[in-house]
Amino acid sequence: MIPQFDPKEFLDVPDPFAADDGAHLRVPDVGSLPPAPSRSRTRTLRVGAIGVAVAYEAALIGMMGLRDDTSLRYGIVGYGVVLPLVSAGIALAVLQKSTVRRERVLATFAVGVVVFVVTTLLARVPGDESVPGMVGCIIGGVMMAAGPVLLAIFSMRHAFATGATWRTAALGLASGLIGAAATRLYCPNDAFAHVLIGHGAPILLAVLAAAALGPRFTRA
Amino acid sequence: MATEHSQTATSSLAVSEVPPSHGQGVRASEQARSSAELDRLMDRYAAGDTSAFRELHRQIAPRLRMFLLHLCGSPRLADDLLQDTFLRIHRARGSFTVGAAVLPWTYAITRNVYIDHARKGRDRNSESIDHLPDGTQPAAPNHTSPDAELVGRETLDVVRTTLAKLPVTHREAFILIRFDGLSVAEAAQVLDTSEANVKVRAFRAYEAFRVALNLKEGNKP
Questions:
Q1: Helix residue ranges per DSSP H, chain B
Q2: Half-sphere CA count of B211, side-chain side, radius 13 A
Q3: In this model, does residue A211 exceed pLDDT 90?
Q4: Which of A30-44, A55-69, B32-46 shows the lowest mean pLDDT across its residues?
Q5: Cα–Cα distance measured from residue B112 to residue B168, given in angstroms and rounded to the nearest whole number
C-alpha cells in the first residue's frame, strides 16, 4: 500500500525536542505508591473470581431448581452447557494475556457466538416458544450472567493496555455464555426460538453492559 | 473513579533524585539491546520485586516522557502525565504477561494517559506545540554560523507546527517510529492496529513534513 516504506527516510525530519533530555526526572518512591497486586496475586484473584462465579451460579441454580429431566436429556444439556463453558474458558484464557492481538480476541468472540447458535440448533426439540416464557428466561439469564460479568470486570481491573472496550465486551461474552450454560441447567425448555432468544438475549445484554461500563475499570 | 484515585495518588508521590541515564537520540541498536533487559526488569517487577521499579523507571521514563512531550508539546505537562503513567504501570503490573515485550505495553499505557488527559476537556493540541512553556527552546542543529543556526531553528519551528497540525493518529504513528525508535510491529501493538495501518499513518505524516519543509525552502515537493 505504501511504496518503499523506509523509516530511515523519517530521519529527514529533525526532532524539535532533542534538547530536552529530561535530566530532572525523579523516580517515585515505590513505598509511596498505592498497593498493587503482583502477578501471582493477580492470578490468585482471577482464579478466586472464577470460583466465586461457579458458587454464584450453583446458588442460583439451587434456588431455581435443577431441571428434572437432566438424566433423560443429558445430550442436550451437554451441548448446551459444556460447549458454551469451553468457549467461555477459551475466551477468558485469551483475554488475560495483556498483549494479545485484536484479531485473536475477535476470533474468540465469533467462536463464542457460533458455538451458542450451533448448540442451540443441535439441541432443539419441540417446546414452548411463547413470549412470556422467553421473558422469564431473559430475566433469569441476566441474573445468571450478572455475577460473572461483575466478577470478571473486578478481577481484570487495569488489565487491558489496548482495546479495552472490545476486550471487556468479550469478557461480557464469556460471562453471558456461562450464564446461558447455567440457565440450561434449570430451564427444561429446549425449543429453538426459546433458547435462541430467551437464553441468547442475556448474552447480548452482558456484552453490551460490559462494553459500556467495563472499560473504565479494565483499562490500564 | 479510577482516574480520581490515580490523581490523588500521583499528587502524593514521594520522589527522590536519580540522574537519568538516557538522553535524547537513543539509537535503535541500543534500544534493541536494552529491550531484553527491560523485559526482564518488568518481569521481576510484575512478580513483586519492587527493587526492579527504580531501574525500570531509570531506563524507561526518559523515553516515555519524550513520547508524551512529542504528543503534548509541553515539558511540564509531559512530566505530570509521566507520573500518572508510572502509577498506572504500577497498578497494572500484575496483568503484565510473562515474556511479553515491555515497550509496547508501557507505550500503550502512556498513550492511554495522554488520551484521558485530552478527554478531560482539554484539546489534545491545547498544550500547544507552537509554544514551549518553561522556557524550553527547541534544539537547533549544531551550525557554526548564526545564519545557519537561524535556518535550523526555523526548520524546527516548521516541524513543531506541522506536528501540532497532524491528525492525532498520524502523529502518534510517526512519533513512535521516528522519535521513539519503535519498529512498525511495536508501534502497531501500541496503537492496537495493523502494521499496514501504521505504515500508512506514518507515511502520511512524513508526507506532511516533507511538503512543509520543502515549501519552507521554496521547493515544490
A1: 2-11, 28-46, 51-72, 75-92, 102-119, 146-165, 168-174, 184-191, 195-216
A2: 10
A3: yes
A4: B32-46
A5: 13
Q: In the block, which residue shows the cell 490500564?
A: A220
Gap between the Cα atoms of A89 and A157, Å rounded = 18
Interface contact flag, B91 A220, Cβ < 8 Å: yes
What pTM does this model have? 0.80
Nearest to B18 among A27, A32, A220 (CB): A27
B178–A2 C-beta distance less than 8 A = no
- Grid cell listed for A132: 412470556
Cell numbers placing A122:
443441535
**Which residues in chain B come in under a pLDDT of 70?**
1-33, 121-151, 215-221
What pLDDT was estimated at residue A134?
Answer: 93
Specify the pLDDT at position B152: 73
Whether this model's ipTM surpasses 0.85 comes out as no
Q: Which distant-in-sequence residues (6+ apart) come within 8 Å of B79 by Cβ? A: A24, A25, B65
Is B103 near chain A, with CB under 8 Å?
Answer: no
Q: What angle do helix axes A39-64 and A164-186 make, rounded to 10 degrees?
A: 30
pLDDT of residue B22: 43
CA nearest neighbour of B110 among B97, B134, B137, B92: B92
Spatial distance between the Cα atoms of B179 and B192, rounded to a whole number of angstroms? 19
Contacts of B207 in chain A (CB under 8 A): none
Contacts of B154 (CB under 8 A, 6+ apart): B216
Q: State the CB neighbour count (10 A cutoff) for residue B36.
A: 11
